[in-house]
Amino acid sequence: MKQALGRCLVSIIMPAYNAAPTLRESVESVLSQTYHEWELIIIDDASTDTTMEIAKVFGENDSRLRVFTNEENKGVAASRNLGIQHASGDFIAFLDSDDIWREDKLAKQLRFMEETSAVISYTATAYLYEESRSNFILQAKRELNYKNLLRKNLMSCSSVMVRREHMRLFPIGYMHEDYALWLDTVKKHGIAYGLNEPLLLYRIGSKSKSAKRVNSAKMLFNSYRQVGYGRFFSAFFTLRYAFHSIAKRAKIKFQKSNG
Questions:
Q1: Strands of the chain, DSSP E
Q2: Partners of residue 163 on adjacent β-strands
Q3: Three-state SS string across 165-211, please?
Q4: Which phi and psi (to 5°) does residue 206 adopt?
Q5: pLDDT at 214 over 80
Q6: CATH code of the region 8-206
Q7: 56 CB contacts (<8 Å, ≥6 apart)?
Q8: Residue 203: CB partners within 8 Å, gap ≥ 6?
Q9: What is the mean pLDDT of residues 43-69?
Q10: How far apart are CA 88 and CA 9, in angstroms?
Q11: Which of 200, 190, 170 is nearest to 116 (CA)?
Q12: What is the pLDDT averaged over residues 21-27?
């Protein structure tokens, strides 16, 4: 029997490292959700700024928010895994500490997952360039299969929601851990369902990993290796992905300059 949506608990995993400038706005976007059955698990990854202090204040004011700390910096994948291990929800969602959700994100995505019986789902993404909202929207395909996902990653991590019983830990290593996990999950379950509404606002300027293109390409190559491809096909998929990525960035810049 399906559980009534109003009783489903969503565990939201938020890794945070030196996130003081953006953390408040990200947490407040959770607090403002129209769907109230959630828990927010913040993992401070040994920050050297006031990230931990900010998170603790939120936790003192709302019992739905819990804060954990890594004794040493372990990276985003290990931090998300710690959050998953502490999660008690029926669904797992992810929100980076510099991204923002629209207030109806949880309500709409839960309803969408119920309608589609999705194991994993994601939403469209609106891009924020520094402090200005970009006109660029990364659209979500209604049904995203493994072949489509190999070409390019449409699944922004902060938009993804997974049923708890199918949630696996992120692989650890020099790769795009979230992309590798989405590939593995979609390969196993067949389809990721996309809700084509921009319920996530994604900050471009603060994504340090995205800014380092050579390292990003190496991480992408290793992601394909992680899911079982040889060097030749991993290199081919990386080049094809890079082509789509360059085209997307050019479109974002064009729309920003003409916005």
A1: 10-16, 38-44, 65-69, 91-94, 100-101, 120-129, 132-138, 143-145, 161-163, 191-203
A2: 91
A3: HHCCCCCCCCCCHHHHHHHHHHHHHCEEEEEEEEEEEEECCCCHHHH
A4: -90, 0
A5: no
A6: 3.90.550.10
A7: 67
A8: 22, 98, 99, 100, 128, 130
A9: 97
A10: 8
A11: 190
A12: 97
For residues 211 and 142, what is the distance between their CA atoms, to the nearest angstrom?
29
For residue range 103-148, list pLDDT tens digits in order: 999 999 999 999 999 999 999 999 876 555 555 788 999 999 999 9
The two tokens of residue 227 are 């899911």
Determine the Cα–Cα distance for residues 47 and 132; give it in Å rounded to an integer.
Answer: 27
Per the structure block, which two tokens stand in for 46?
């040994």
Q: Exposed, middle or buried: residue 72 (CB in 10 Å: 0-12, 13-18, 19+)?
A: exposed
- Is residue 140 within 8 A of residue 192, CB to CB? The reply is no
Nearest CA among 236, 85, 115, 119 for reference residue 187 = 119
Euclidean distance between CA atoms 60 and 90, whole angstroms: 24
Pairing of strands 161-163, 91-94: antiparallel
